[in-house]
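HUMAN:
Could you generate one sequence with tokenized structure?
ASSISTANT:
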Amino acid sequence: MKKTLIALALTAGATFGAMAQDIVDTAVKAGNFKTLVTAVQAAGLVDTLKGPGPFTVFAPTDEAFAKIPKATLDGLLADKAALTKVLTYHVVPGKVMAKDVKAGKVKTVQGQELTVSTSMGVTVDQSKVIATDVAASNGVIHAIDTVLMPK
């Protein structure tokens, strides 16, 4: 009986430990969001995205950031206010899993709205969702193929 309880406690600990990664840690672990993580750090948003949430993050992959000319990206990374505006435009309050996505307008943390379409796969503004439901303890990440720019 004692061995069973210890085994159950260890299993529960391992399960909760595996699920305990927040949005930032999950993005780091995924490996294809290095530029996004660098931008989140430069904007000072790490603590926010490690907060309780929940958040839905439409996360541009490294390939998405590579589409931006280097000088433009460097300028954005150097301008904390502009960078914060761009990054928070990728975040929606709440945890929206792929099965729950509906076409229409959704308000971002930044304040403006994104247009979600489900007619030919899921798109957010003009960016295609290429991976869904990367679960984190405080929300979910959906990878996108283009960096979204607020209007």
